[in-house]
Task: structure prediction
Amino acid sequence: MTQTILEVKQLQKEYTGEVTFKALKGIDFHLNKNEFVAVMGPSGSGKTTFLNCISIIDRPTHGTVTINSKNPFELNDEELAKFRRTELGFVFQDFNLVHTLTVEENILLPLALDSMQEEEMMKRLAKVVEFLGIEQILKKRTFEISGGQKQRVAIARAVIHEPGLLLADEPTGNLDSKAVNDVMGLFESINRAYHTAILMVTHDAYVASFAHRVIFIKDGILYNQIHRGNNKQHFYQEIMDTLTFLGGGQNEV
Result:
């Protein structure tokens, strides 16, 4: 039986000021364990707000977000901080690495914050750096490594505590084409090997074609979704056709 790791019901988000802006207008969505889903849509469609509500950066105005059978917005500050560290992994476009720390120290940071035993930390470190192929750069500082290596380090930090859900916001935005292929191959491998569900916002149809399913948000609502099936090239073309119809091409942010 398929298990759901993320359930979103009637998600709404309003920003109030001189004029009230409804960024999300009632989205229903679920993500199964082990599933890899990309989120796309034109600029201003609400896709980043959608991800921010799921990652607990923004609090929804209405509706519920349930992750691993828990509503994170019902937790107190201490419980919420622990929930983010243990249940979720985050990968961003600009890597968000701490430049004063070595690669190894950056990767171990989530475990250190949870005061994990050193023996267990080293065991997990060895496993994840071998998986990602970054054993040779552990003692380097972040300014000494390439963009593709930085994203591998950011991914290692995101998955070292073995979260059930990995959230990615434009994870290939600062990478060249070779690094894009490498990183997306890693996302596929993590999804398979760690049984980690992935929800990724991207503007790039090629990047989205690595996912199992793509959902499209337009004007704050869930407009459409398509599944990959067995033909990746056909899936890519479907993504491009949908983006063209929505008015956002491959380079639409």
Summary: The helical segments are 47-54, 77-87, 103-113, 118-132, 147-159, 177-193, 205-208, 232-246. Strands lie at 4-15, 21-32, 36-40, 62-67, 88-92, 165-169, 197-201, 213-218, 221-227. The chain has a mean pLDDT of 92.
